[in-house]
Amino acid sequence: MTGITDVLVVAPHPDDDVIGCGGSIAKHVRDGARVTVVIVIGRERSALDDAVSDAEFAAETENAAKALGVHRCVRFEEPSRDFVLSRRVHLDLVRVMREVRPQVVYLPHDNDDDVEHRMVHQLTTEALWMAQSEFFQETGGRAMPAPRLVLGYEVWAPMARFQYAEDIDGQIETKVEAMRAYASQLRHAAWDEGIRGLARYRGAVSAGSGHAEVFQVLSLGAPAVGLRAGGGHD
């Protein structure tokens, strides 16, 4: 993608942005774009990482963002499992959107197995039209133009069909490094190995080799130069 100056990534939980589109984030940064990540829901403690303090976990998030080159990370800290799609959280996201005015937006795809991922998909799609409207003046800022591209990424449930594949062969090590910054999450599962394997598979399917991230195209505005179309299997 060329001519992109501002990118917005909306993640349900810490590390979802890394898993879903970390390679694409690093590629945008390489090409000179500013990337803002919004993490909607706060940390969910488990018995596997209960010894990790909130400050230590926040440092993991910061280190992952730094590894990818993220310009700004905004954490809403909404409650896990008690998360609701309130007017307040919609307006919080609209406010960020109007500040960033992104040309590209990433969000979870619409059929992810995790219910909170689907809720954040709904939140983001609703906030996008709100941010482009002449209403909701309480958020401040002007109505933003429509993004050139809105893409759904995969985390818990790989997509059966996709419309766009991004070559991240040059960014796969950066993506894995960012995932390894979440040391507490690697106690739950070998996410670093998982994202490498999925990217390798997606590279083989979309281009025959290498590593890739694939996306659901949710909205396509002005033509974006350099897109590679992909196709999923039924």
Automatic annotation (TrEMBL):
Pfam families: PIG-L (PF02585). The keyword Zinc applies. Keywords: Zinc. Signal peptide: none annotated. InterPro entries: GlcNAc_PI_deacetylase-related (IPR003737), LmbE-like_dom_sf (IPR024078). The keyword Thylakoid does not apply. This is PIG-L family deacetylase.
